[in-house]
Write a structure and sequence with these properties.
With 481 residues, this protein is an alpha/beta fold. The chain has 2 domains: 246 residues, EreA-like (biosynthetic domain) (EreA/ChaN-like  fold, 3-Layer(aba) Sandwich), CATH 3.40.1660; 108 residues. Helix content is 45%, strand content 16%. Strands 1, 2, 3, 4, 5, 6, 7, 8 and 13 form a 9-stranded mixed sheet that branches. Strands 9-10 form a two-stranded antiparallel ribbon. A two-stranded antiparallel sheet has the order 11-12.
Length: 481
């Protein structure tokens, strides 16, 4: 056991790169090698080991800015609700329909638990708006959500859109949606009644409405201008959410194991739809960066989640559907520190101490490795390069690519040594340190799960914008240095 660990530490020591962005002179140069490894991959996923860590959000923003500025990425797609994030999109792209004057205004719809996750992107949103200010409308970078929790909000957005463009269709849609809107703003009430046979499902009605709105938006998109086209797409995506969320909430109500798969499949479809939409909008191959938790972006096939529980996730599906060579997947880990999390769903935000990583975990291995004395470092397992003629293999997205790409291992031994199955920690919006092994650890093969990993040994809790007793200076704090 000790010899195996020693080999891992030695290999980590040979290939680790320092992460210095928190230092005054750090930042851009830190990620030069990472951007070289990403190459021309059009899909980059950047994870997080928790939903409440300042360091992960800061580093992710730094990397994303460089992807937009230096590699022409046109969309940031986040693990957030579509309507909430689209309000930000209107703001950063300077749409005349936005009424928001500041980034904090644009974040105003993020009221659903957990508020602290996305209401701390103020500086990044401000930067995006400034970046877009002098660009042609077709060359601006957008900000989008991909989640499906906005069941009720999205249905209201569909109805509002139809009332403007086709009042008769709006009446038909309202009649269809009434089968779940009768339960008010609580989708769980609808799900409980239908899951246990107390009421019929709305499956047929939401599908019928989706077909109606697809036909209407398709008709309008053929003649609408740029901004109208965008609003048509926004409405159609809301109808897609209503359909998938209806199934998701019913599945969750009875504890169906496939509820996770329904959600992640929806997120992947949303990504595909946005890729197609942005490609048509800009007239250039769309390149997207995706922000979500490690549990969604790390390839599920390299984890217990996929191997034993038969769950897939965004990272796996994008590698399969877009082609392994056309994606690049970055994970984050931490050993200890503090985290913003709750003790249960809907419970108050707390600043919690993160238990030091277990010795039999990747967090423990990376902590003990401490290459060159560095506490914070990066490991790159794969790099994307232009394929030679003999190895050119285009995936489904050949229309998005400028040329065939090929992903190469940086070092075969590093990949092999870090492909052993060890525990990996996942902290979501809830953190239960007293039951950490059961609640937050799962086995994974690190080098197969990600193309690169950034380890920050001691991390800080993400401060909320709103005043909070655990964060005395939170009102002036920022997630993005």
């Amino acid at each position: 056991m000790k010899a195996a660990l020693q080999r891992k530490w030695e290999s980590i020591g040979r290939h680790a790169l320092p992460v210095l962005s928190a230092a005054p002179s750090g930042g851009r140069a830190t990620y030069d090698r990472l951007l070289q490894a990403i190459g021309d991959a059009p899909v980059v996923m950047i994870g997080e080991a928790s939903h409440g860590t300042l360091d992960f959000y800061r580093e992710r923003a730094i990397i994303t800015r460089r992807l937009i500025e230096e590699k022409g990425f046109s969309s940031v797609i986040v693990e957030a609700d579509w309507p909430d994030a689209y309000r930000i999109n209107r703001f950063v792209q300077h749409y005349p329909t936005t009424k928001d004057k500041t980034a904090q205004d644009a974040l105003g719809d993020f009221e659903r638990f957990p508020k602290w996750m996305w209401r701390n992107t103020v500086e990044f949103v401000e930067w995006m708006r400034e970046y877009n200010a002098n660009r042609d409308v077709r060359q601006r970078a957008g900000f989008y959500g991909m989640d499906l929790y906005s069941f009720i909000a999205s249905s209201n957005e569909v109805l509002e859109y139809l009332e403007k463009v086709d009042p008769q269709l709006a009446e038909d849609a309202r009649e269809n949606y009434e089968c779940f809107l009768q339960y008010g703003d609580d989708p769980h009430a609808y799900a409980r009644h239908t899951a246990f046979g107390m009421s019929p499902t709305c499956e047929k009605e939401v599908l019928e409405t989706l077909k109606m709105i697809r036909a209407k938006t398709h008709e309008r998109m053929r003649r609408d201008g740029f901004l109208e086209h965008d609003e048509d797409f926004y409405a159609q995506q809301n109808a897609e959410i209503v359909k998938d969320a209806e199934e998701y909430y019913r599945a969750s109500a009875i504890g169906r194991a496939d509820s996770w798969n329904i959600r992640d499949s929806h997120m992947v479809k949303a990504i595909h739809d946005l890729i197609g939409h942005r490609t048509k909008q800009t007239g250039a191959p769309a390149k997207v960066v995706i922000w979500a938790h490690n549990s969604h972006l790390g390839d599920a096939r390299a984890t217990d989640m996929g191997r034993k529980r038969r769950k897939h996730n965004v990272g796996q599906l994008l590698r399969e559907q877009c082609g392994f060579n056309n994606t690049f997947n970055i994970g984050f880990t931490t050993y200890t520190g503090t985290v913003s999390a709750a003790s249960g769903w809907g419970k108050p935000l707390q600043k919690k101490n993160v238990v030091p990583g277990r010795k039999d975990s990747w967090e423990g291995v990376l902590h003990e490795a401490r290459p060159n004395g560095w506490h914070d470092f990066m490991l790159i397992f794969n790099q994307v390069k232009k394929a030679s003629d003999s190895e050119a293999r285009l995936g489904q997205w050949s229309h998005v690519l400028q040329g065939a790409l090929r992903k190469h291992e940086v070092d075969t031994e590093l990949t092999r040594l870090l492909s052993d199955e060890l525990l990996e920690r996942y902290i979501g919006v809830i953190y239960r340190p007293d039951t950490e092994l059961l609640s937050h650890y799962s086995s994974s093969a690190l080098s197969l799960q990600y193309d690169a990993v950034i380890h920050i040994d001691q991390t800080e809790a993400l401060p909320p914008i709103d005043p909070h007793p655990h964060f005395p200076s939170s009102s002036s704090s920022s997630s993005y240095a």
